[in-house]
């Protein structure tokens, strides 16, 4: 089983955005030392509790502080941007950090309607054109437009010896089929989906069309998880994340609360039902319990790579969770 990291660069109470971004870099460095395969950082806009609005900038920072772990976006939200510019940025990163760059793309807005409007015109129309945007992006990355295409002589310079690996991130059969159609790798966001992921991943594998000889389907599963020495401690650490999500849905506190703040948050009956449902989509426990849960997920979904999203108030608790999981699963 391979393990990887998804980071949203959360801002905890008592910390600044700069603290959160430095914590992201430290997590990537720690993940590299623990044996994680890849580290991805997300893109969000006008969300006060999350610090990463430009993953491409963070990847330059993180790449300079790591040496072997693959690094990438989870994800660049393609409808906001022209494919050519995205290809240029990630080709540049691939020149700087050869053989290490993943270009994960998605189609979500990543923020409020107002932020979406500020970022791009006609976002919904571009969402509908996502297949065309993806195809154009891949042509720029591989410099293989048909000769009669207007962009056939345009290079997304600098051109790396090893192009970035293109991934499509999604939670639906539509995204899976799109990834398969263009021979892309596919990341299924189990942590934010109520869909039948097994059927979706099967759709992807059955529809996969190699872009070039030797291409094979590649998938990973993204899971929200918190690990500590004991199940009780893991539950305590995870409570900050759960209450933070609950507050965010209510338009409340933007930053991740401390364990003490989370414990003192007043809950209604409806809140308790909501939290119970949220916990069902998470893995929380001691190393042995987390390993067992990951094994079940691996068998269920048929993928050999699990990407872990861990939110905790304390950066130390977060890194410790990743360490414990790596020691248990990777040995």
TrEMBL record:
Pfam families with a match to the protein in the record: Bac_luciferase
Entries under InterPro entries matching the protein: Bact_Lucif_Oxidored, CmoO-like, Luciferase-like_dom, Luciferase-like_sf
EC numbers for this chain: 1.-.-.-
GO terms for MF: oxidoreductase activity
Keywords carried by this UniProt record: Oxidoreductase
Domain Luciferase-like: 1-299
Keyword Oxidoreductase part of the UniProt annotation: yes
Similarity annotation: To bacterial alkanal monooxygenase alpha and beta chains.
Protein name according to UniProt: LLM class flavin-dependent oxidoreductase
Naturally occurring in which organism (per UniProt): Heyndrickxia faecalis
